[in-house]
Amino acid sequence: MGSDMSRGCFQIAAAFLVAVPFSASAQIVPEMVSRTALRVCEDPANMPFSNRAGEGFENKIAELVAADVKLPLRYFWAPSGPGFVRNTLQSDLCDLVIGYAAGAEIVQHTNPYYRSTYVIVTRRDSPLAGVKQLSDPALKGHRVGVFAGTPPVDEFNAKGLVDNAKFYDLIVDHRFESPLAVVISDLENKTIDAAVVWGPLIGLSVKKSDGALVMTPLLKEGGEPDYSFRMTFGIRHNEPDWKHKLEAILRARQADINAILSDYNVPLLDNAGHLIPPSPPASPQKAPTP
Questions:
Q1: Counting Cβ atoms within 10 Å, is residue 271 exposed (0-12), middle (13-18) or buried (19+)?
Q2: pLDDT grade, residue 259 (50/70/90)?
Q3: In principle, which of 69, 215, 226, 260 could form an S-S bond with 206, CB 3.0–4.6 Å?
Q4: CA 233, 253, 235: angle at the middle one, nearest 5?
Q5: pTM for this structure?
Q6: Is position 275 within any domain?
């Protein structure tokens, strides 16, 4: 989480827009930011975050922002992974990345708009269904899935879980591969007994399982590691007006954003690291017509 490669843990062209030249008398945002459309950088096949059909929760949040800035929503599509920010945002093909882990220096961050955590997912009838921490001795000897290169892997090494672990690829082109679908299939057919996954990635799949799968957030308790991350909007550096405009929208629409995230079964934490109860269903957002 938090690097250019982590965009998919968390987009090829759908629009080519030219930014309006800078005018000091009418400056709202810095000159590189388009004033004719909300240009969003996204992955075309990375559910539950985004897809071309607009079915992901980042699509829904983008629609909300477009409605507030009163501009048509346009996407620049490129696969997430290495080079994503360089080939999209930094190339002035779009102006906004909807979900980026706070702290990565490759982008300028807005204030965080949600905090989530890694989770343990099991079958409801699994003997591991009650496990809440990776330090639980019940995990020993069981086949547990985890995405290679993610933060929980360090704890797998520390707790002696590596020998029985099954590792899944993190960085793939989601147009052609779906590691998440493999994880869900492996859980259902009992190839693995549990999976440790970024909550926003797997929450919707758990919801769609109609109770067959259960998801337990990994919360920081006692000496346990903190597997939570704060997510922001990512923009180019040195665009303070754009940053302030987006942060004003985030402040005004936080309840609506939480409702969107709750619709997708994203586990949300408050600033103290406690779970936030699910929000009521979100109201549909309508961006201006291009």
A1: exposed
A2: very high
A3: 215
A4: 15
A5: 0.86
A6: no
290 confidence band (pLDDT: 50, 70, 90): low
Q: What span, in angstroms and rounded, lies between the C-alpha atoms of 197 and 233?
A: 22
Are 31 and 48 in a shared domain?
Answer: yes
Q: How far is residue 91 from each of residues 27, 32, 42, 66, 100, measured CA to CA in Å?
A: 21, 10, 14, 21, 17
Query: b/e map of 14-35 (b: 16 or more CB within 10 Å)?
Result: bbebebeeeeeeeeebbebbbe
Q: For residues 77 and 10, state if they share a domain.
A: yes
**Residue 124 resides in a domain:** yes
Stated as kind and residue range, the H or E segment containing 73 is strand 73-77
Tokens 């102006």 map to which residue?
Answer: 95
Per-residue pLDDT reduced to its tens digit, 80-104: 989 999 999 999 999 999 999 999 8
Instruction: Assess if residue 286 is contained within a domain.
Output: no
Q: Tell me: do 26 and 92 sit in the same domain.
A: yes
More confident residue, 224 or 204: 204
pLDDT of amino acid 51: 98
Domain carrying residue 207: 116-217
273: phi then psi, degrees, rounded to nearest 5: 85, 15
By C-alpha distance, which of 233, 230, 201 is closest to 94? 233
One-letter amino acid at 272 equals A
